[in-house]
């Protein structure tokens, strides 16, 4: 009898072990999938990794025993993805990193739950891809304006899918990556000739469309403008990366004099205008006398209009604006753009009156930044009498579709950035990769000018033609092609995301309300 009972216990243990360990195995696989997906993000940029990561996550989700287990799997994926890729936030504060990781991972948990819910449909690969795109849409807007930094559409600028950017934008590229991964999981969970045929057809269609976009030549520019750029250099390192007040402006002024000397000596051609980076002044040049003098002297030295990234006071007490001012050599201030996408807990504090007394560390934010509302389209006049339309983005702006797409009619794009606090981290390369995707999306020459790297020139296909990675001072002169016409992506990408979000919500709701036959779960096969 004892022997029989022992044998039964052993048999029960063999049957029970997979069920007990399945959640841990699924979470481990999902965490690894997150790590794999993260290698597609700059600076590594292994573009084949994201669809593989999506595939592994989807298999793990389908083998989860409940929606709660699926959420845990998604959380593990999110931590695996965001932990290494967003570690640069520790340069601001460890608590800021923890908060960002929790936010990002929570969105991944939502994604996993929706992917599992989609599994009740015969067309679940498509539904899961729509749901994923819907979560990316929401994450880029909620909360406090959103944080869409890790959208999969940013990972494909060097892949065969890059030709899709001007047609369906970053959102469409995200959908293409996710659907590819979902179809891979579809085959793994139930191999069949039918599934292989459908998946092969998708690959033919998506690669064909991307190839068409890649081989279609970019129309020649209608003209050319010559732009000087000045990277003054910054001390770097954490929230005080710009150094003591006026340090960054002093550096910019010194480098601008070097640019002027190189032009006068004939080592560099005379530009039509010069670009300074975001936060080239950390005080308002109109109210701080020394800052104003440095700016005026620099503009006079180069003898050309300068697009100055300035901090301006107001509009109210203890408020400030991050702006791009077109300043003429005669002292006139031309068109001005006010940054629209300001960083929560970096440039402004949500619920400031409540949180600031509770979290004194937030004092580093300083005055409350106020976001602009108008597009960064600056109609400026060059010294030779030509009038051109420049599209201007400030740093964090590049991660937000509406702000970028509002520049569709600009003839060339300028991105001013201040990454001094993130020197030595992956954040700088990640932002530059996002900017490359935006240049391809808008099909515009794009000049990026930063306080301390990366400064660079990107052509309309997203290819880098000039890049300065060192954080110290650097100057130069480049040519930007002036183009007209708008891409399909500039007006189609956001409606596609909205449609995908609504369609996924309605489809999953219908599945939830429709009874389905109970199916036995097997941890090695899936649900």
What gross morphology would you assign?
A: globular
Strand percentage lies at 5-15%
What is the average per-residue confidence, as pLDDT, rounded to a whole number?
93
**DSSP summary: helix tally:** 13
Output the structural class: alpha/beta
Number of strands: 13
Unreliable stretches (pLDDT < 50, length at least 5) are 1-5, 518-527
Helix content: 40-55%
Instruction: Give the helices and strands as they follow along the chain.
Output: HHHHHHHEHEHEEEHEEEHEHEEEEH
Q: Determine the CATH topology of the largest domain.
A: Nitrilase/N-carbamoyl-D-aminoacid amidohydrolase
Largest sheet: 7 strands, mixed
Assembly state here? single chain
Specify the CATH architecture of the largest domain: 4-Layer Sandwich
Tell me the span between the first and last alpha carbons: 37 Å
Secondary structure layout plus pairing:
Elements: H1 2-38, H2 49-62, H3 67-85, H4 94-118, H5 124-139, H6 165-189, H7 193-215, E1 223-231, H8 247-264, E2 273-275, H9 289-302, E3 306-313, E4 319-327, E5 333-338, H10 352-358, E6 368-369, E7 377-381, E8 387-394, H11 401-405, E9 412-417, H12 427-442, E10 446-450, E11 455-458, E12 464-468, E13 474-482, H13 489-513
Parallel strand pairs: 1-2, 2-3, 4-6, 8-9, 9-10
Antiparallel strand pairs: 1-13, 3-4, 4-5, 7-8, 10-11, 11-12
Helix pairs in contact: 1-2, 1-3, 2-3, 2-4, 2-6, 3-4, 4-5, 5-6, 5-13, 6-7, 6-12, 6-13, 8-9
């Amino acid at each position: 009898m004892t022997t029989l009972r022992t044998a039964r216990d052993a048999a029960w243990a063999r049957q029970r072990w997979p069920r007990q360990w399945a959640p841990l195995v699924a979470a481990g696989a999902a965490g690894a999938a997150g790590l794999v997906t993260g290698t597609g993000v700059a600076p590594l940029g292994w573009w084949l990794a994201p669809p593989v990561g999506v595939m592994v996550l989807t298999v793990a989700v389908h083998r989860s025993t409940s929606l709660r287990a699926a959420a845990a799997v998604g959380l593990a994926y999110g931590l695996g993805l965001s932990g290494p890729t967003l570690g640069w936030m520790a340069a601001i504060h460890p608590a800021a990193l923890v908060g960002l990781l929790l936010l990002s991972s929570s969105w991944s948990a939502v994604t996993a739950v929706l992917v599992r819910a989609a599994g009740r449909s015969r067309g679940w690969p498509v539904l899961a891809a729509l749901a994923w795109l819907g979560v990316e849409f929401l994450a880029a807007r909620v909360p406090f304006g959103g944080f869409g930094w890790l959208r999969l559409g940013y990972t494909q600028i060097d892949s065969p899918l890059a030709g899709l950017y001007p047609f369906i934008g970053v959102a469409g590229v995200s959908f293409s990556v996710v659907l590819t991964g979902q179809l891979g999981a579809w085959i793994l969970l139930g191999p069949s000739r039918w599934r292989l045929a459908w998946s092969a057809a998708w690959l033919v269609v998506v690669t064909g469309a991307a190839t068409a976009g890649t081989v279609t030549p970019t129309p020649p520019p209608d003209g050319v403008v010559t732009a000087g750029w000045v990277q003054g250099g910054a001390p770097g390192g954490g929230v005080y990366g710009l150094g003591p007040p006026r340090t960054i402006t002093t550096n910019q002024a010194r480098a601008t004099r070097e640019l002027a000397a190189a032009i006068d000596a004939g080592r560099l051609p005379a530009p039509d205008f010069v670009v300074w980076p975001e936060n080239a002044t950390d005080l308002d040049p109109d109210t701080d006398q020394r800052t104003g003098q440095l700016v005026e002297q620099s503009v006079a030295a180069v003898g050309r209009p300068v697009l100055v990234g300035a901090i301006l006071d107001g509009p109210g007490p203890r408020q400030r604006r991050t702006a791009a001012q077109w300043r003429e050599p005669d002292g006139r201030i031309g068109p001005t753009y006010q940054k629209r996408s300001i960083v929560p807990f970096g440039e402004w504090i949500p619920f400031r009156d409540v949180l600031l007394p509770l979290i004194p560390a937030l004092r580093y934010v300083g005055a409350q930044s106020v976001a602009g509302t108008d597009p960064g389209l600056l109609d400026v006049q060059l010294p030779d009498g030509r009038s051109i339309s420049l599209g201007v983005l400030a740093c964090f702006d590049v991660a937000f579709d509406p702000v970028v797409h509002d520049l569709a009619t600009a003839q060339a794009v300028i991105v001013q950035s201040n990454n001094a606090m993130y020197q030595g981290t992956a954040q700088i390369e990640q932002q530059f990769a996002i900017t490359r995707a935006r240049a391809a999306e808008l099909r515009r020459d794009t000049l990026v000018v930063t306080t301390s790297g990366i400064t660079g020139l990107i052509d309309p296909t997203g290819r880098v033609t000039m890049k300065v990675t060192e954080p110290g001072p650097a100057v130069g002169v480049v040519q930007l092609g002036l183009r007209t016409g708008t891409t399909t992506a500039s007006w189609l990408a956001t409606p596609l995301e909205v449609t995908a979000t609504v369609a996924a919500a309605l489809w999953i709701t219908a599945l939830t309300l429709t009874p389905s036959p109970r199916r036995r779960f097997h941890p090695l096969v899936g649900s």
